[in-house]
Amino acid sequence: MNRQRSFIGFIVAGAIALLVIVIAGFYWFFAKNPANLIASTSGPGAAIFVSKLSPAMVSLLTNPDRLQVLEREEELSKLKTSLFAKSGIDYKQDIQPWLGNEITLAITTLDIDRDPENGQQLGYLLALATKQPEKSREFVELLFSKRALAGANLAVEQYKGVKLISDNSQPEQDLLAGAVVGEGFVLFANDPKVLRDAINNVQAPDLNLTSSLEYQKARKELPKGGLAIAFLNLPIVAKWQGLELPEQTYNSEIISLVLNPKGLLAETTFLTSLEIFPPSPPLSKPVGALQYIPASAGLAISGSNLNNLADSDLAKLWKQATATIYGSEEDVVARLAKPLVDVQKRWGINLPEDIFSWVQGEYAIALLPDKEQITPHWIFVVEKSEGVEQGVARLDAIASSNGLSINPLTIDKQKISAWTELTTATKKTDAKEGASFSIETKVLGLHTTLGNYEIFTSDLETMDEILTTKDNSIIDNPNFKDSIAAIPLPNQGYIYLDWIKSQNLLERQVPILKLAEVLGKPFFDNLRSLTVSSYGTDTRSLKGGVFFKLHK
Asked: What's this model's pTM, rounded to 2 decimal places?
């Protein structure tokens, strides 16, 4: 395990480099000179080296030097320097002349020697496309000669016509194996066996990823012009994490990063052998409920028909994804939807049964961050349809059973129903007069009818903002307009997150996000918002995308 540690660090550094290069730098370059940014249209060629049982593969499909805008802040230079610092390799002199238009990283196997007795030893493969095979061979010889001078013992073998070089490193160093295969790729791995398996995968096509039916189906879903793609074999990813999922709906996922004049679209497709259904018919335009969400919202979720959400394709994906990442669905819900969890606990309600069950039309949910308090304000807008009136009456009844009063109010001539709680406040006076008491009314929620919609809010201030700023809704926000314009129609609605307004809230709820911000600082520094949606009509796949809008 010690021998692998440094190489794992090398692979992780490479992965971070790819992500930063693709995500953080693309937008500025694209705005200046899109014609020079050329991405492969045929997908990653290195897939022929990767086993169909590989858990994950990620590929950059353009030469990183085409993203020279990062040189403006010296980010790309720093990445190149740090990546090869310990090896004594100079990127510009030794790698740049021969590096082609693809860099692929893959976890090839969960255990290199398939012996559970000595622990799990992951296999890593790094494939670099070469446009000058002779120069790349010189580079491999140079790299290993430098390692030999540093004390490593080299081993050279011919395997099925390919020269493999590896070293038997000292414990404090990393184990490395390398080869130039044919005229197209330079391969590096953390064990010679990984390289031998990669060569076997080429010579026995039924073993490699390109022969996988799941991968072939996923490739067909790729949009044109993707800068980078990632492919995940979900059951093996779960096994890698040591998880036994209670429900395994989706078998694989493919992600593609596509440039857009306004930002970056990360489009993904989840594939399944089962028949799945969306929660409702797709929408051809944004829902009207958004007109009541103020432009100040940090998070807005919109769509239609919540009453069968639990049995939908989105719900099945949510269960599988959260179980894979967090180990249980409850953990991630408690973190990301804390305001809604708090409402359930305070009122003693069950959201699916007491609210979602009667939402058959349009809906919009929003959180409005408040600098003065930790808990954000919330808004829930639902279109009038069969069952809504009875649903509202049921909520009133639940409020009453919890000791709340239902009081009529008027704001800007608009009649409102408020759920209130009476509390006493004590004020100390002198000893002779004793203490004085006052009764205070605390508003725990409100609802009113506007047009064809019932609107619920957490407090008076939020309701007042909705009523008095009718011409300043989120649908009039230019940033929101740009974001949803990048999402294909028809779709299932949107999850829109204003990063600037919600950053503090999200960091409190998801502490690990701060680490992600450090690793991807150029990206997060430029992030303006992100928008998530699902679309597509295939009953054997779930297709969607995340649009990242960055500052100009």
From this structure: 0.77
